[in-house]
Each structure stands twice: as C-alpha cells, then as structure tokens.
Amino acid sequence: MRLPGRRPFTLGDPTMIRFEHVTKSYADGTTAVDDLSFEVGEGELVTLVGPSGCGKTTTMKMVNRLIEPTSGHIYLDGEDISAIDPVELRRRIGYVIQQVGLFPHKTVLDNTATVPHLLGWQRKKARDRAAELLDLVGLDPAQYGDRYPEQLSGGQRQRVGVARALAADPPVLLMDEPFGAVDPVVREHLQTEFLRLQSTLHKTVLFVTHDIEEAVRLGDRIAVYGAGRVEQFDTPATVLGAPATPYVAEFVGADRGLKRLSVTPIEIGDLEQPPVVRLDDHAARAAARLAEEGAAWAVVLDADGSLHGWVSGAGLAAGTSGPGEAGGEVRDHARRMDAWLPLGAPLKQAFSTMLQHDAGWIAVLDGERFLGVLTPAALHAALRRSTAADAGHVQREDVVVESVPSA
Ligand SMILES: Nc1ncnc2c1ncn2[C@@H]1O[C@H](COP(=O)(O)OP(=O)(O)OP(=O)(O)O)[C@@H](O)[C@H]1O
C-alpha cells in the first residue's frame, strides 16, 4: 500500500502536544506527575523512559483523558484538551498497550477495523482499510485476516494492535510498552518495523518504555523520568553523551558510550576510498592499476554501478602476464560481497554487519550509488568524532575504551 510520504521530524517543527505545568496527585497523597512541561513536535516520536512507578503511564493517559490532571494544561494541536469531548479526542489519538486488548471473539480483520466501524464507515470500506493496515504492519491479510487472536504469536498480536491503532489514521499515537511482552529478538524486529512505518507515516508518537535501549533506538527525543519529574528531555545522542544529572547518567548506564553507537550515524567523511573497478574491466589492466596504486584489493561494481564485491590484486595478477595480455575480465576473478549499509545507518549496525559477514570493510551506499567503505579504523574514528562533539561532557577515553577494544 502506498501512503502519502511526509518529511521526517526536525527540531523546530510545529508543536502537536504541549504539556504546561501538568501535575497529577491522587487522594492518598501520591504525586504521580509533578509540574510537567514539555512539547512534542508534529511527526516527532518521543520516548518516555524511567523506572517503574515514575509517572510515564499517567503522563500518557492524561493525553487521551483516561486520567485528568490535578492542575496544568495539555494542548493538542493548539487546543486545550480539557475543552474537547473525550470520545472525540480519542478518535484523534491511536492507543497501543502492552496487553494489546484485542477482542478474542473477533477476527484479526474485524479487530483492526474496530475504530473505522465505530466511526460509522461502511463495512466494506472499513475492512478494506483494515486489510491495508495489516499489510502495512507485515501481516498478509489473506493469511491472517480471518484468524482469531489466540491463533497468533505474541509478536503478531502486537502488530495487529499497531494496525488497529492506525486504522482511522489518527495524527497522534500513544504507545504504552507496546513491545514489552515479547522476547528480545521479536522485540527488536518489531522496533525495526515500527521505525520503517514511522519513516513513512510520521505520526506524532508518545512511546512509554522501561528500556533505555528501546528509548534510544526509537526516539527523536527522550524524556528521562525520575519520580514524577522529567530529569532530561533531549535527543538520544545528547542524553547519552551529556547526561543532565547524575541520576540520568546512572539511568542510561555506564556503557553509554556503547549505546551511542546506536545513535551515531555513518557520515560521508567516515568513509575510505579503495580503488574501484568494474566487472567488465580488463583483468590485467585492473591488476596493473592496483599495483601502481599499491592497493591489495579493489571494490568491484557491476555495469550499472551497483556493488558486486571485491577482487584482490594477487587474484587479478594470477594468470595474466601484463597489460593487454590474456586474463579475461575482472568478473572472472571477482568475489561476491554483499555487505553494505546505507549512508546514515548507525555505527552499531555497521559493527554488527561487519561481524555478521566477518568482513574487514563494509560498502556504504546512497540508494544504489557506491560511496566508499567503512573499515574498523574508520569506525573508531567516527566514534571519536561523535564523542568530541559533546563539548567535554564525556571523557573521550571512556568511550574509546568501552566501545573499541584494541586488537
Ligand atoms: N489510582 C491511583 N491511586 C494512587 N496512586 C496511583 C494511582 N495510579 C497510579 N498511582 C501511582 O502513581 C505513580 C505513577 O504511576 P504510573 O503508572 O504513571 O507509573 P509508570 O512510570 O507508568 O510505571 P510502570 O512502568 O510500572 O508502568 C506510581 O507511584 C503509582 O503507584
């Protein structure tokens, strides 16, 4: 299904949700949320992270008026929500919770179509929309649409929960530990899929989690909670690189240098430029060029410029006795290597791809275009670059020691 593409969130975009001095106290004297003020931009994904009982869920439930604040105001797209009818408000806000809350006696398709039904859409239109959404979250409607929730895995049920929340195309999504009940592998999978979805949909999302890794991975910005208050509200890179308080530093963990790998993107300046040859280049000529440049190997691109793999100078030279002699084309000597990353991918992904392929380098592409290669040395340098940008908040040595063990 094609969805209208919108550009990703950037700081400074218009505000969608605004908390203004919001406090929630209960009759027993518990102050669940204490004088909360922050803004969420249109199309921004903000993760609320903190230990159990610190007020994350209360914050979220005040946005769709499942809980009313004791004092302060919350604005949705400029409107004070206390003046909006709660039923009308909730139509504008998708809600995904950990227990999913699917109706056990309804099929997956009907569960997904719940909100469109409530909105009075015609049955066919609602079911067509539900099928589109199931497809979007990676569940084939033909295969899963007629199943009942108990016939799905935990991860599949979570996907249905996300599809259902998106069915009426609300501008805002509230997600309360939506991936909390599945095992770590499925969880990472769901996170990846959700990021892919968000890169197309650009919903305004408040996402509650206990897990700092999840918060860092998903959030455009993170609100780190300590007992009812937001201790720091900033980008993942800043929260990890420059924790605002000792509490935040402890919460994000001593290994924050490692976690920064998830939020530091590969940049063009990190790349090295090995010689590049084409599959249909003459092998002997390519060998001579490598010898001239003192290079042991070259990246091999195919005729249309996409990555094929690599070739060693020695491999090329074998069987050729000089330029112009027999020896065939580079394709006769090249080896496949399809380890590549898109520009902007996080350094963590670069490390893991390198490990997975047992490779000393990874090609970096912009779309189909080959840009250069990332080597372990370049990764190390990239991490130093990102650490140096923190203006002295983190000792550079800390990060280097933690993240790039010396060979
Ligand atoms: N109805 C209530 N009456 C009294 N106290 C409450 C009530 N609901 C929540 N609280 C308290 O408010 C505080 C914040 O709760 P909240 O559910 O927002 O925390 P949380 O950060 O979402 O926790 P968790 O991660 O465990 O879900 C907790 O101390 C909780 O015990």
Written account of the structure:
There is one protein chain. The chain has a 6-stranded mixed beta sheet with strand order 6-7-8-3-9-10, with helices on both faces. By secondary structure, it is an alpha/beta fold. Strand 7, helix 8 and strand 8 form a beta-alpha-beta unit. Helix 5 crosses helix 7 and helix 16 packs antiparallel against helix 17. The N terminus and C terminus are likely disordered. The chain has 2 domains: 245 residues, Rossmann fold (3-Layer(aba) Sandwich); 114 residues, CBS-domain (Roll), CATH 3.10.580. It has 17 helices and 17 strands. Helices cover 35% and strands 23% of the residues. The site of adenosine-5'-triphosphate (ATP) has 13 residues, from helix 1. Adenosine-5'-triphosphate (ATP) binds next to helix 1.
List the helices and strands and how they pair.
Layout: E1 15-25, E2 31-41, E3 45-49, H1 56-63, E4 71-76, E5 79-80, H2 86-91, E6 93-97, H3 108-112, H4 114-118, H5 123-136, H6 141-144, H7 154-166, E7 172-176, H8 184-201, E8 204-209, H9 212-218, E9 221-226, E10 229-234, H10 236-241, H11 246-252, H12 256-259, E11 276-278, H13 283-293, E12 297-301, E13 307-312, H14 313-317, E14 335-336, E15 340-342, H15 347-356, E16 362-366, E17 369-374, H16 376-388, H17 396-403
Parallel strand pairs: 3-8, 3-9, 6-7, 7-8, 11-12, 15-16
Antiparallel strand pairs: 1-2, 1-4, 4-5, 9-10, 12-13, 13-14, 16-17
The site of adenosine-5'-triphosphate (ATP) has 13 residues, from helix 1.
